[in-house]
Amino acid sequence: MSSPGILRIALPTPLRRLFDYLPPQAVDPKALFPGVRVKVPFQSRTLVGILTEVVSTSSISHEKLKPALELLDQEAILPPDIYQLCLWAADYYHCSLGEVLSSALPVLLRKGKPAEAKTKWPVSGGSTEPQLKLNDAQHYAVNSVCEAANQFLPFLLDGVTGSGKTEVYLRSIASMLQAGKQVLVLVPEISLTPQTIERFRARFSVPVAALHSGMTELARLKVWLGARANEVKIVIGTRSAIFTPFAELGLIIVDEEHDQSFKQQDRFRYHARDLAVMRASILRIPIVLGSATPSLESLLNVKRNRYTLLTLPLRAGDAKMPEYALIDLRSAHIEEGMSDPLLQAVRHHLAENNQVMLFLNRRGFAPVYYCTECTWMAGCKRCDTRMVYHRTTKRLQCHHCDAQSAIPIQCTQCGSTALQPVGLGTQRLEQLLTKQFPDTPIIRVDRDSTRRKGSMQSLLDQIHTEPKAILLGTQMLAKGHHFPNVTLVGMVEADSGLFSADFRAAEQMGQLLMQVSGRAGRAEKPGTVMIQTRHPDHQSIQTLIHQGYQPFAQMLLTEREQAILPPFSYFAVFKAEAYTEESASGFLSMIKTLCAVAKETITVLGPVSAVIAKRKGLYCQQLLIKSNQRGVLQQFLKKLLMEIEKQPAKQSVKWVLDVDPVEVG
Ligand code: ADP
Ligand code: ZN
Ligand code: ZN
What confidence tens digit (pLDDT) does each residue in 444-484 have? Predict the structure, then answer.
């Protein structure tokens, strides 16, 4: 069917195709050009899509084509570099273009609101801070980044916590601002604190805006528009800020580049760090990936000369690296998770009027509620998991679906009342510490203690005003904060990362251990890190504490190369969920059969149950697709998806494809 103007529109649906419509009535055809938003009828709903092309023929007959309802923009809503980034991402992650474009827009624009909002951008700072004298390594790093202006050059800035990476960012930014450029800084969810933003605002006399999920939709839209109009000069944001439009973007910085929160875990499963590198390449600008514990992916890119390595080997100023001590839990006397040597050390550091930080990556009071007569354990009705005992709320909670129940008085299996919480969570550790140190403030930082708005801030304020205190928390406490009075860090349980089904567990354990250690002895006070473990001789722990992160990471890289695991091979995972295990695994077995044609170049593993085999009442199965060449995998997945989409639709199975998954187990 031929017609002078048919609109080919990308719609926010998971369907991997574009949709044809007739132009809206009484709209000048000249106003219809690619990139504008259009409102259309779709099934029984109204959707906002983006016009990709005006074509003259459609595979659908003219009578069946519906007219679009409304044209929403007078100019393309996304600038060309973001549009191109979205095209690339839709192809790479095998996601529908409509869904990708829609994710790139602030929610209000997705809903069809006009792309306008008035804001005055206040300017607060302008260097009152005295200018530090950079050390040689910092100086070299700043120079390298500044010399790369207007070229695509990716840098890996590898420097221990406190080595002055942020100072390198600030100086590089200053030079970009002077050249009339804007800068995008991506940080993990957890480290985007008011202090972080304040440090940037204090330094520059230009508008600096934050962008994160805690903001209102209107506030986010304002930042988006402000950056596009070149009013906001610096945007500091979490994952999705990678889609912020800029008029004059000159530099991208990704801090804590190894952090898993850069990977989106539902629908459009992009990795913001990888998209950031792609965006820098599209715009031909430099990008700095910074970390104290770089990902193996980035370290391999350095080895292969794709990234330039910049190293900050020493702590800035006079701060010293901490000392490590291993406590063998097999021989130590232990009370509620704390060994005698660790308790003694805590006492000693408090007596010196210092702060102590204890780290335990499990919130709640106890992970298991157990019958001592018949070994029954309280489980979640909807998930294949145990209920966690919470003492503060006096309830059992599932950490996977948030289901809650009253604490049972009797065992549901044998009727006994001999029920007990077993195992250690942050609340239980807090109880022990309160008993042991009744006169010391104990400040607990975890998801439960920071749930209310503003509570994280008040805990942080308290930490900064109490000279002597015990800080106790999950990984929330491990990341990004400056606690200059902490002289002792205790890892209450280091072993969970050593033996895991996920091949990335050791890497993550090492990163976390380094992050935690980075909290100790930042300023003039030297720090000690005590690690409780049942495996003090484990090669990973030994290498990490005696030689540091780099040799540890190189050791892991060798292991990955020998096992042909990422980043030496490429993974994609199909994840399926259904009300019966058979439906989920049956669907994946069908995919596995379709993969047989490519068995020379593609390896398929599974289907197997996910680590949590059942979640919110749904059985979760997965199928791993692996290849030694990225291009081969990409081409194959494209064909495979077309085959899958030809199969009769299975309403009962929900599935997704995750390219470069960060959690495989
Ligand atoms: P990182 O981002 O690597 O953790 P920062 O940039 O936050 O490190 O620096 C850690 C501390 O050292 C900060 O208090 C900072 O002001 C200070 N610092 C950074 N560079 C220098 C320097 N060249 N001389 C003295 N102090 C410095
Ligand atoms: Zn029982
Ligand atoms: Zn549950």
Answer: 999 999 888 888 888 988 988 988 999 999 988 877 677 88
Q: Among all ligands shown, which has an atom nearest to the Cα of 413?
A: 2
Report whether residue 298 contacts ligand 1, using a CB cutoff of 6 Å.
no
Fold of the 323-363+425-562 domain: Rossmann fold (3.40.50)
- In this model, does residue 3 exceed pLDDT 60? no
Q: Comparing 323-363+425-562 with 570-659, is the CATH topology the same?
A: no
**Atom 23 of ligand 1, nearest CA residue:** 134
Residues with CB under 5 A from ligand 2 (ion): 371, 373-374, 376, 411, 413-414, 416
What is the strand order of the sheet 654-659 is part of?
603-615, 618-627, 570-578, 654-659
Kindly give, in sequence order, each residue whose CB lies less than 8 Å from that of residue 210, ignoring residues fewer than 6 positions away.
192, 197, 223, 235, 236, 237
Q: Where are the beta strands (DSSP E) in 129-195?
A: 154-159, 182-186
Q: What is residue 308's three-state secondary structure?
A: strand
Q: Distance between CA 535 and CA 329 in Å, rounded? A: 8
Is the shortest distance between the CB of 132 and ligand 1 below 6 Å? yes
Rounded-to-integer distance, Cα 527 and Cα 321, Å: 7
Say if ligand 1 is within 6 A of residue 364 CB. Answer: no
- Taking the domain 136-312, which CATH number applies? 3.40.50.300
pLDDT tens across 390-403, in order? Answer: 998 899 999 988 89
Domain spanning 2-110: CATH 3.40.1440.60: yes
What interhelical angle do 549-562 and 539-547 show, nearest 10? Answer: 140
